[in-house]
Design brief:
The longest helix has 13 residues, at 16-28. This protein has one helix at 16-28; strands at residues 49-53, 71-80, 83-97, 110-116, 122-131, 134-143, 151-156, 179-187, 192-202, 215-222, 233-236, 249-250, 256-263, 266-274, 278-279, 289-291, 300-306, 312-317, 330-338, 349-352, 365-366, 372-380, 382-390, 394-395, 405-407, 416-422, 428-433, 453-457, 462-468, 476-482. The strands form 6 sheets. Strands 1, 2, 3, 4, 5, 6, 7, 8 and 9 form a 9-stranded antiparallel β-sheet that branches. Strands 11, 14, 15, 16 and 17 form a 5-stranded antiparallel β-sheet that branches. The model is unreliable at 1-31 (pLDDT under 50). With 489 residues, the protein is mainly beta. It contains 1 helix and 30 strands.
Length: 489
């Protein structure tokens, strides 16, 4: 039981009325820090304990409660509701030392400390092992306190040796037979204040964590109305609207993508993302949309309320509050490519923003054997970039100086592509030559026949070509070909 603030409760508490009077004077002067209204909870461990500071147990010797190298003030005892409590201010870090009587906590399983703070957001506990004056090992755990209320931190000593749990994986508490320092630190740096009580090691197991209140919520997006959708993701107030945090998986090949999150009860804003369209534009999407200042693109998002013990599954279409994907406005576009200058053509295709620049999505067919290959594709309305491909040459190497060529960041082979504007329900037919904006490839340059050529032939299989040249001596040049042997003089 905690003692009351009564004179001569025990020999070590005879001074309490004086301390209380001083504290009252301090409060009257308007300079006191915030403090607890009640004492720290009574410890519940009734097994073996090594106590540094607690009215409930017999304390072992401690050299100092504030080392000279500490960056903090205080450390003295202040009674709170009749119970001794230590108080620290201006805290960056502070040391408590037991070099005179190092603590052998080998048989202990848990470190306990009760903390009350009006302003700290992080509270760190470090245990340091020495062999005499020689440092051996240390481990530090960071905790998140609730402000203006008592926090009972019961930390498994094994956690101080776990690289995944300590603040610095390079330092873990690999032994604890000579613990000589206890270091408290935290945030905010240099201005932290806290009260501590019930600092002890024990072989009592840490209390089980409170039951989770998290609820499973399945988010689904229907993308049936888009031919290509890469990197589909969910972004919301639960992940700072980061589309890289929660990618969705396609469900059974039906182009509905889902992800299940575990969320605490409360209200959450969210929207969807995929690579080809980026974030949704939810203007005019419907009644499920609310103003959400953190939402990208338009400051709008859907809102969902999560209630404890009530799992949910929600499905939406792209940029709508409906549960299916409304088809976007489209038009049929015939893409044709003149490949007549090429003797061998395999797998010709059109690739563009409408199919993720995937040459395997839309192969072209040869039209009437004339070297022109075509394919009609249903394309979403708006600006669309595209280029052609075939197996022998791969993707086109386009020139930005051509009139129809634009920068297109997702286009392969240089980030350049042709650009067209697609108008809803207005078909178009396009034909291009390879790597050009012209309607067909230019013909191969012809070789003009030389003038004034005389051809003679003899029975030995030799053809002689004679022609005039611009020569001041009016000489006649001749060129002889051996038809049978394929050589020339």
């Amino acid at each position: 039981m905690k003692t009351t603030n009564t004179l001569f409760v025990s020999p070590k508490k005879w001074f309490r009325p004086l301390a209380t009077a001083c504290l009252a004077l301090f409060l009257f002067m308007g300079q006191a820090a915030a403090q607890p209204d009640e004492a720290a909870p009574d410890p519940s461990c009734d097994q073996e304990v090594i106590s540094l500071f607690s009215d409930a147990y017999t304390d072992v010797p401690v050299d100092t409660w504030l080392t000279p190298w500490s960056s903090a003030t205080g450390g003295g005892i202040i009674p709170i509701a009749g119970n001794d409590t230590r108080f620290y201010q201006n805290v960056d870090f502070l040391g408590i030392e037991m070099f005179g009587t190092p603590i052998d906590a080998t048989a202990m399983t848990t470190f306990n400390v009760d903390v009350w703070t009006p302003n700290m957001t992080v509270f760190r506990v470090k245990l340091v092992e020495f062999d005499g004056a020689t440092f051996v090992t240390e481990g530090e755990i960071a905790l998140t306190p609730t402000q203006s209320g008592w926090n009972t931190f019961s930390i498994a000593l094994a956690d101080f040796a776990n690289p995944a749990l300590v603040t610095n994986p390079a330092f873990t508490l690999t032994s604890r037979s000579g613990l000589s320092q206890l270091i408290f630190s935290g945030l905010p740096t240099g201005t932290g204040e806290f009260y501590v009580d019930n600092i002890y090691f024990s072989d009592c197991a840490p209390p089980p964590p409170p039951p989770s209140t998290e609820v499973e919520v399945e988010f689904c997006i229907d993308l049936n109305c888009f031919p290509v959708s890469d990197a589909v993701a969910l972004a919301g107030s639960f992940n700072n609207f980061n589309p890289g945090a929660d990618f969705l998986m396609q469900d059974m090949g039906n182009r509905i993508y889902c992800k299940t999150l575990e969320l605490d009860p409360g209200a959450y804003d969210f929207k969807f993302f995929f690579a080809q369209e980026q974030f949704e534009d939810l203007n005019g999407a419907g009644a499920c949309v609310v103003s959400s200042p953190g939402a990208p693109t338009d400051g709008l998002a859907r809102r969902i309320t999560v209630e404890e013990g009530m799992p949910q599954s929600v499905t939406f279409g792209w940029e709508t509050c409906e549960d299916n994907c409304p088809p976007p406005p489209t038009a049929d576009i015939e893409f044709c490519l003149d490949l007549s200058p090429f003797s061998v053509v395999d797998a010709p295709a059109v690739a563009g923003t409408f199919n993720g620049f995937n040459p395997g999505a839309d192969f072209l067919m040869e039209d009437m054997g004339n070297g022109i290959y075509c394919k009609t594709v249903t394309v979403p309305a708006g600006e669309q970039d595209f280029m052609f491909f075939f197996a022998q040459e791969q993707f086109e190497d386009l020139d930005i100086t051509e009139d129809c060529i634009e920068n297109s960041p997702t286009a392969p082979n240089g980030g350049l592509a042709r650009r067209i504007t697609v108008v809803q329900d207005v078909p178009q037919s396009l034909i291009y030559g390879w790597e050009t904006c012209a309607a067909s490839n230019p013909p191969a340059p012809s070789c003009p026949a030389p003038e004034n050529v005389t051809v003679s032939y003899n029975c030995d299989g030799v053809v002689v070509l004679d022609w005039d040249i611009d020569d001041p001596y009016n000489r006649v040049q001749n060129y002889t070909v051996d038809i049978e042997n394929g050589n020339q003089p």
